[in-house]
Amino acid sequence: MLLNNYFNIKRFSLLLKQDLLINRTKYLLGILGLGLVTYLLSYWFLSSSKNSIINNLNSIYNHYMVCFTFYMMAVGVIVGTAFPDLTDKIKTANYLLSPGSTFEKYLVQFLLRIGLFVPIALGIFWIAIRLAKASLIPEMINGNQFFDPALVPYFEFRSLVTGEDKLWDTWQILFMIFGFFSYGTYLFAGASFFKRYALVKTVIISGILFGSSILFTVLLSHIMYPAATHGFQIHFDTFRVTDSLDSAQLFALYLSMLSWIFFLVFAYFKLKEKEA
Amino acid sequence: MINIQHLTFQYKKQDALFTDLSFEQQNGSIVGLLGKNGAGKSTLLKLISGLLQPQVGKLVINGFKPFDRLPDFLADIYMVSEEFSFPSITIGLYIKATAPLYPKFDYEKMNRILQEFELDAKKSLNGLSHGQRKKFLIAFALSTNCSLLILDEPTNGLDIPSKSLFRKILVGSVSEGQLVLISTHQVKDIENIIDTIVVLDEGKIVYNESVFEISQRLQFKTVATLSGTENPIYQEKCLGGHRIITESNQFEETEIDIEILFNAIINKVNLKPQSHAVK
After folding, report:
1. Which of A165, B77, B98, B248 could form a disulfide bond with B148, CB atoms 3.0-4.6 angstroms apart?
2. How large is the ipTM?
């Protein structure tokens, strides 16, 4: 009975179905639009980078990485606009009176914006960027260099974690995967924290927090290591944890691997508080 | 069932809207909640539905504390607000998506009411006029078969034929186990459909009486002149004479004129017997 107050699988599936039925056109158009824009921008970016690709075919991976980073920012925009019903008074009342627990409503948004959307978005990216590469046209560049797209490798997710034909270290791969996940949950938490313009406010607050952290670290560096720190430098001691991992890297890994837990819990309780 | 005991509520940085408000109502009736503009009718409805939390007092609806907003509570109440918004989808899709969340939803009743209101399920909700959307919302609310239906100014925005249709549909759709709370300041619109009249004034329930009891005790008449009329309890001038409230004479039963009754209550006229006045 107590569990039923928080979670009921039938009720949850009905809430999820309700959201999907009501917003299906919006979601479908959103995904198609994202794919189309990604294809067009990637094609434009790869086309305008033919010079550097001819000189070094492997540089295409850097271009793919740039495309992927910008794409994930766009994905972040969608994740950061979770809880759209909390942006106006009338919709908020409808949302609050909708038969479901706070946890179920939270889970619906998490599942839609992260659990379902992110894998779909990654698939869309894979298709769009490969289509963009396939659309590149063979041509003479600078009058004497021939650009042959057939020689350019296609995008693979593996290439995002590969450098000089060698896979990154495990910790680096974990850092990247969880880093993106934590980034998504951070934006998701921002959407539950702010009422209006949540995404913009989250980005501004991130900038302020990041800048403040840097300033604070610079300040600490000057206090703790006055001789070793000059100007706007940061200095801290590190030590090796394993052969391929030092303490600073381990800290970064912890940060990316654990912060999503904090953000998810934070988002839930913020939502509960907002409903009060 | 509504059980409110000694409720106090105030909005931030404002004077208390309700102090020590008590109100009890069993299921099986259609209650008209009347009050002047700003009397707190909509706030009381929001408290009952769980959108607001009282500062002091006991508030129990169908055995639940509304503000806990437990799913079982939410699945058994439906509120038609004065202001509402819909997604840009068809009526049919909205029903398909939202109705399953209400376990007692009656699809046949929904179709019947839609037909009576002349609403086409294939029409987009946002392509409808305000009045049509309100009619749809009322149809949906009635079809949920929730134990408590809260209608806040349901007739606002409805044209004259729709208002009478609304009254007819409401009376024909509500079952014994339901409680319908209708808040309005357009008292004429709910005449003949309510069986209990509740008046809210200055933060208190100042009147709570069943229509049956009122008609047993009071008579409502329009007379050309007051001379010859024995001790009217309340009177108002009108075209062609006076509208009056008198005590019932047991020989004649008159239709209740809610408007004049409301005015009498708001003007603090003592509508005896004393035991009926809400403390």
Report:
1. B77
2. 0.88
